[in-house]
Specification:
Beta-galactosidase, Chain A, domain 5; ten-stranded antiparallel beta sheet; 3 domains; eight-stranded parallel beta sheet; TIM Barrel; alpha+beta
Length: about 725
């Protein structure tokens, strides 16, 4: 069955995702593409309303908002809402009239694409709207390709990816979005803009951390399991902007793309500018369905192919153990690698401290005798199965003691007449300077540095950090597209580097750290299978971090040193029991930051048992369907359920984080199980000790667990349980 169809006139188009429909048409009055529908499944384009019918939805008569429903509004007469395109033409004109010219359908192995060609004939500016749908995904991709077909340059001041009119409503939409800061990334917020604009954006040069490129819009009634909503995310790792606008006619629209802040692109004759992809989805059954649709799309179309359907390893990382310093040396790390093998670790990672300087990326001469190859070889030959080995590097930065800074000062981010002074570098960056990736020689240097690091040390894993926000986004050399193209060109260069690395090392496990989720977007998720949720590794805080993270990423991508003797940054001045750390850590990709060189036998055995439990549960947790049974935002407790796609098993986590006065918890009604199958529950955490000793519970029908729930009484703060359900027939 074709996923894209059109009517006999070739003026109405219907795009089918796996469980929703998207419709658009060409206005006979203006020639503009008009949005017709996004939501419930339709069968044929004939079921779509006519463009003129959509534009006559309720509105104040005196304000003829005939352009509210445009698929890609350009700055132009009689258009007053947010523009997707603002172009300055050589004549001095600023208006662009994009009329439909033609369309083309393309079929790939795993997708179908509609291309609508729009033309401003006066200025010979061509814009192709690109729509892609997938037979196995409920989400839809949109982007725009802008080409200058004239004989004079065109200056782009705004070039968004897409605009999406929302269904007319007499009540304002509730916008769910993610905000944050360092150590508190991805917090969930709900905002109701009754009139005017709500702007979500990043101006930091990265996609975070103060906001993240995600939204969900509903009428205010959606719950975890009920209510319709539209949601979306922008696949871009730099400055971005998403705008919600509700006008005086009560029409609402969302648009977004590259931020027009500090943006300008000089489009020369014959040149092309491509916007990043804006991905949209529709859910009929609440936020829970939205989560599962997002995760499904990531697993099939975003996540690197090398890790699709697989699980994340049990990691030992020096981050939470050695705190860089003198303890980070050859002897200590070799001892730690041997002890990591004893507890069943599958990957050992050198975090900060192995390098001579930031920028040169050679092993410390005194601590490691100039090479970490012996440690990599040791990890690879230990145990019945070799331990994989990886390192950390803040690739885009260099400090002032590095040879690259001494020899190539011109390679660093700076304005032509202004090099950053010491007092202009924030304290947290410790004097780090950002390399200027817009220079071809710098892009090539970083690619070769990373390629050599991986090849010479036979790395299985690379942790990319980025601890600097942009403070001087400029270059001493003139940029072909102008100075305000800097931030876009930087991201494009970053993508090219990792596209080459992915081709060279398709099985390399890449972690996107970025100061703890500062670069949180699907643009970079195409390269990285693991994403650091936050530098905040505190087990209790991890609950909110987990919930926000799963709005944008899948469960198994969630990374961090969850089990540790102490935290690198002691955020809350409180001690969280190791059991709570471990169970919260199993909500993602578990890692251990304990100093194994000093671990006593009891600690070693405890870590071994946590690692074994993690390995047992991770296939279902990391690749299963996510159900948020009770949110930590709404209750002094939380419950998260993960169900295997074939419903053969489930893993349910229970956490207490604010219980008082002997509060009794309700029965937790589970979701996603097979009603008629019998499940055998195994409880972890009820007995004293590390919580890994199993307790068998009576068999229950899936229907019983859905209707009557499972009783789980937690006692005070920082108590936790896990229930592992297995279908009896299996």
């Amino acid at each position: 069955m074709k996923q894209i169809s059109f009517d006999s006139s070739g003026k109405k188009f219907l795009l089918q995702t796996s469980d929703s429909s998207y419709g658009l048409g060409i206005s006979p009055a203006t020639g503009f593409p008009v949005h017709l529908h996004f939501g419930e499944k339709l069968r044929t384009p004939d079921e779509l309303p006519a463009p003129e019918e959509v534009q006559n939805l309720p509105r104040i008569r005196e304000t003829r908002r005939r352009h509210t429903f445009l698929e890609y509004p350009a700055f132009h007469s009689a258009h007053y809402t947010e523009s997707c395109l603002l172009a300055l033409h050589s004549s001095g004109a600023r208006g662009t009239r994009l009329e439909f010219d033609s369309f083309r359908l393309r079929e790939e192995a795993d997708s179908e694409t509609l291309e609508l060609l729009l033309v401003d004939r006066l200025h010979q500016l061509f814009v192709t709207l690109v729509y892609t749908v997938y037979p196995d995904s409920p989400l839809l991709d949109r982007r725009a390709v802008i080409r200058n077909g004239g004989g004079a340059p065109v200056t782009l001041r705004q070039a968004f990816s897409a605009s999406l009119p929302l269904p007319w409503s007499d009540t304002p939409y509730r916008i769910t979005h993610l905000y944050g800061r360092w150590a508190a990334e991805g917090q969930i917020a709900h905002t109701v803009p009754e009139a005017g604009k709500l702007v979500l954006e990043s101006r930091t040069g990265l996609s975070g951390p103060f906001a993240m490129p995600f939204f969900a819009a509903d009428d205010g009634s959606a719950t975890e399991g009920n209510g319709s909503l539209v949601f979306g995310t922008l696949q871009w790792s730099g400055n971005w902007k998403i705008v919600f606008e509700r006008n005086d006619s009560l029409n609402s629209v969302v648009s977004g793309g590259i931020n027009d802040f500090d943006f300008q692109w000089n489009l020369l004759p014959g040149a092309v500018f491509e916007t990043p992809t804006f991905t949209f989805g529709f859910a009929e059954h609440g936020f829970g369905e939205m989560f599962r649709k997002i995760h499904r799309h990531i697993r099939t179309h975003i996540e690197p192919e090398s890790t699709r359907g697989k699980v994340m390893p049990l990691i030992c990382n020096t981050y939470g153990a050695f705190r860089s310093g003198e303890k980070m040396n050859a002897a200590n790390t070799e001892l730690a690698i041997r002890k990591a093998a004893e507890i069943g670790a599958e990957l050992f990672v050198f975090d900060a401290g192995w390098q001579e300087t930031l920028g040169d990326w050679i092993a410390h001469r005194e601590k490691f005798h100039g090479t970490i190859r012996p440690q990599a070889e040791l990890a690879h030959r230990l145990g019945m199965q070799k331990i994989k080995f990886g390192v950390w590097a803040e690739l885009e930065s260099a400090d002032r003691a590095s040879s690259i800074f001494r020899n190539h000062r011109e390679w660093f981010m700076q304005y032509p007449d202004q090099f950053p002074a010491d007092d202009e570098l924030d304290d947290s960056a410790s004097g780090r300077m950002l390399l200027n990736l817009t220079l071809p020689e710098v892009e090539e240097y970083l690619y070769r540095a990373l390629d050599s690091l991986i090849r010479e040390n036979e790395l299985d894993y690379f942790k990319l950090d980025m601890n600097r926000l942009f403070t001087h986004p400029g270059s001493p050399a003139a940029l072909p597209e102008g100075a305000q193209s800097f931030c876009v060109r930087y991201v494009q260069a970053l993508y090219r580097i990792f596209e080459r690395i992915r081709r060279n090392y398709p099985n390399l496990l890449l972690e996107n750290c970025a100061c703890g989720n500062f670069r949180s977007d699907w643009g970079f998720d195409r390269f990285a299978s693991r994403i650091n949720r936050s530098d905040n590794q505190e087990g209790l805080d991890m609950l909110k971090l987990h919930e926000g993270f799963l709005c944008l990423h899948q469960t198994k991508a969630g990374g961090g040193c969850h089990i540790s003797d102490h935290y690198f940054f002691d955020f809350n001045q409180r001690e969280v029991p190791r059991r709570f750390q471990a169970f919260a850590g199993m909500l993602g990709s578990l890692s251990i930051g304990v100093d194994l060189t000093r671990a006593d036998p009891e600690t070693m055995e405890s870590l071994r048992r946590y690692g074994a439990l993690y390995k047992k549960l991770r296939p279902t947790v990391q690749n299963g369907l996510y159900y948020r049974i009770a949110s930590c935002y709404d209750h002094p407790y939380a419950c998260y359920e993960f169900v295997a796609p074939d419903r053969s098993e489930a893993v349910v986590f229970f956490f207490a984080h604010g219980l008082q006065l002997q509060q009794r918890l309700p029965a937790f009604r589970l979701r996603g199980l097979d009603d008629q199958s019998r499940y055998t529950p195994t409880l972890y955490g009820a007995l004293a000790g590390d919580g890994c000793t199993p307790t068998e519970l009576p068999e229950r029908l899936g229907r019983q667990l859905a209707v009557f729930g499972i009783d789980m009484q937690l006692h005070g703060d920082l108590d936790c349980r896990i229930v592992h359900l297995k279908r009896k027939d299996d």
